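FAQ
Q: What does a multi-component entry look like?
A: The components come first, one per line:
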Amino acid sequence: MRCSPGQFVVVIGSNGSGKSTLLNLVAGTLRLGAGRIHLGGRPLHHLKDHQRARWIGRVMQNPLEGTCPELTVAENLRLAERRNRPTLLAGGFLLGALGGIHPNGADRRRYRELLGDLGLPLADRLDEPVGQLSGGQRQTLSLVMATLGSPNLLLLDEHTAALDPRAEATVMALTDRLIRQFGTTTLMVTHSLEQALGHGDRLVMLHEGRLIGDWNAAEREQLDPPALRAMYGAAIVSSQSSSAPDGSSAP
Amino acid sequence: MLSLWLGAYDQGLAYAGLALGTYLTLRVLNFPDLTVDGSFALGGGTAAVMISKGVPVPAALALAMVFGGLAGFVTGVIHTRLGVNDLFAGILTTTGLYSITLRLMGRSNIPLPQTPAGILALPDLGLGLDGQWAVGLSLVVLGLILLISLLLATDFGLALRALGNNPTMARANGINQRRGLTRGIAAANALVALAGALVATYQGFADVTMGIGSLILGLGMVIIGESVLRPRSVPWALLAVAVGAVLFRTMIAIALQLGLEPVDLKLATALLLLIAFAFGRLRIPGLSADQGRQA
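Then the predicted structure of the entire assembly, as tokens:
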């Protein structure tokens, strides 16, 4: 499977089809048994998950997993902001001390501006522990964190599955906006056919670890939701029904 | 009577490093570290050997911290590299440390009859030698609290706190869990070894068994400090555990005044913590039966 830079790919499939496995393999939380993973020509498969985090932002399914509840909103944002500079973050005491105190006043102003620009009320709650936020707010924060530091790839693992419909709509609107704004290549796993048909530049379907459907945005428009739902349920698609992948580069 | 309270204050401050180290492992890193039982005695033994050989006290304390840090590093490596369970990794190191400390000391007990010259040079506030110790130990503990507060406020400290709070999220944000955990445990045990060294210097002897029950002692100090001051920020939490150490020693002094036999002290401490566990006031990941550690 190949994706063009900046492409927003939505991945669907029944339970056990390998959607989350695909994301975990790319993120490095699962070890690759065979094959290779490249991001922009850079081989990733020999790197550990925390090393890949330099280029990859992730939003997890469970809002409790993607943030540190005991740390404040500003501290969580600081962690994400340093994701692409891990040497200092994981460095020794002296390096840590030389990096100064964070998040400081300048960091807070920057985060307030960022969240304010996105129209998020979190801008006024920077010093509150994340554990005090609702699930939707935590997932919103998690999404902003994942896009900080201009990652080359964004992985969204059913990131609205645990939210109520209103929070889901808010998070999906923010998802679209951030991806358009930064032009980040994105892999989004979802169980929602509405999301699959309404978001992204490309839709792929997995079944038992294999790519069994691949539609670009124009082809997706032709898809009939009931037919897709039937396909989704039966997960049997002839090889003729899938078009060739259109991408030319990683991942 | 004043001497009794002052003695408890001094002892509490000497033990504060143990409380700070326990806070660092249990509260910041979420790691129940049994190495402290071994590193406390290692610190005391190292300081006693060095001081009795004429090495200046500050250098002896620094060396004790280095050895304690190495002990913590070994536990960290055993846990993160060899995949040994956290509690068992600590037990393994502590068991080995008993022999190492005994080898280092050459015998089970080393007396230190001389009060360090640095303490004698301090003002006594009209309270004699105990007053001089109080000034010296207060300076050391306040310096430690300031240093650790600053460290935990840096990106490095933030990474350690994230690792303890949500390791999955920490790794997803580029933090090396193995390295962070190992360094954090090493730093905590350096503090614990410093406490052992200060206790040995203050009480005038080091004993190879002086570390037994240190984790429980440190835990008691952390709980008392947090219960009394209910801190909401890291610097206050560090101050709270140091205050907890003083209050803990004060409670022991009161109990001894009321007729508790010194030989029953550890039993009393264990019962106090058991009651805290039973009433649900205490939730320690890895130590509470109803709560598993996050992977």
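Q: Is there any commentary attached?
A: Sometimes. For this entry: Confidence is low (pLDDT under 50) at residues 87-91, 235-251 of chain A.
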